[in-house]
Specification:
Layout: E1 2-3, H1 6-15, E2 20-24, H2 44-56, E3 60-65, H3 77-94, E4 102-107, H4 113-130, E5 140-144, H5 146-150, E6 156-159, E7 172-176, E8 187-192, H6 203-206, E9 213-215, E10 223-229, E11 238-246, E12 253-256
Parallel strand pairs: 1-2, 2-3, 3-4, 4-5, 8-10
Antiparallel strand pairs: 6-12, 7-8, 9-12, 10-11
Length: 268
């Protein structure tokens, strides 16, 4: 169980004094897809006070945790976080506390394999250098790679809809292009999907994802400008405001890859 303030420690002492605790330290996560440092983590000025309270309340400090932000793609973000964790280990030892045995390096690892393969060696190097087995033989390393496992677990299919839809007839419209760079007489296709920002595509808002539609059926002919909207009447329900792809017809299916993380589960 992680904590980052004195009030949490007092609650643990009152409710579950046998809990194994991890002191969560704040991280520099400004480059992450979804920063978390504003919400979680104890600053260095608080560590000694919190360690003292752990001793005072006779609680069990098992180790340290941190999270460099969801969707982190910079392995250097782990350098300072691991240095901070090592400092907490040192302070606890200096206070004569029991040897800490857990280091939780958090989550947020990229969902795409290429991104993970880029960041993983850097993390491994830093762990080996700052927490060598020779110095920490009993240390248990844990992580929270939810995004990495979940992102590729599901793809999404949306339909441009037809009369068979149970809720609403989704449609297509062709309108004159209003972009100042558009050619005279050109048109823009508006596609209305059976899913949107209030469903699986909430990841655009909350997870800052860039989605890429793939028509399920192959098409001949040029790509044309289009916009893709969700099924609601809300003007905010825009999946892609400006995109180009082959012109589609009503009832066609569109594939959206790697929609397994922070999509359909998030609204609930």
């Amino acid at each position: 169980m992680s904590f980052d303030n004195d009030l949490e420690l007092r609650k643990v002492a009152a409710v579950n004094p046998e809990a194994q605790l991890l002191l969560r330290v704040v991280c520099e996560d400004s480059t992450a897809q979804c920063p978390m440092s504003l919400k979680f983590g104890a600053k260095s000025s608080m560590w000694n006070e919190l360690l003292g309270m752990v001793q005072e309340l006779k609680l069990n400090l098992a180790g340290v945790s941190f999270h460099v932000g969801s969707g982190c793609k910079d392995p250097e973000s782990f350098e300072q976080a691991l240095l901070d964790a090592k400092e907490v280990f040192r302070l606890a030892k200096e206070r004569g506390m029991q040897e800490m045995r857990v280091l939780d390096i958090g989550g947020g690892y990229p969902g795409d394999t290429a991104g993970f393969e880029k960041i993983a060696p850097g993390i491994a190097e830093k762990l080996g250098r700052l927490f060598p087995r020779s110095e920490y033989p009993e240390l248990r390393l844990i992580a929270e790679p939810g995004r990495f496992f979940a992102a590729h677990s599901a793809h999404l299919l949306t339909s441009l809809g037809c009369a068979a839809s149970e809720r609403k007839v989704y449609a297509k419209a062709k309108l004159p292009a209003t972009d100042e760079n558009a050619e005279s007489g050109s048109e823009v296709c508006r596609y209305y999907l059976n899913d949107g920002l209030y469903g699986s595509f909430n990841c655009i808002i909350y997870d800052h994802v860039s989605v890429e539609p793939e028509p399920l059926r192959s098409h001949e002919g040029p790509e044309v400008p289009c916009a893709l909207f969700g099924p609601t009447c809300d003007g905010f329900d825009v999946v892609l405001e400006k995109h180009t792809m082959p012109e589609l017809e009503e009832g066609e299916w569109i594939l959206w890859r790697n929609m397994g993380a922070y999509t359909s589960a998030a609204p609930w």
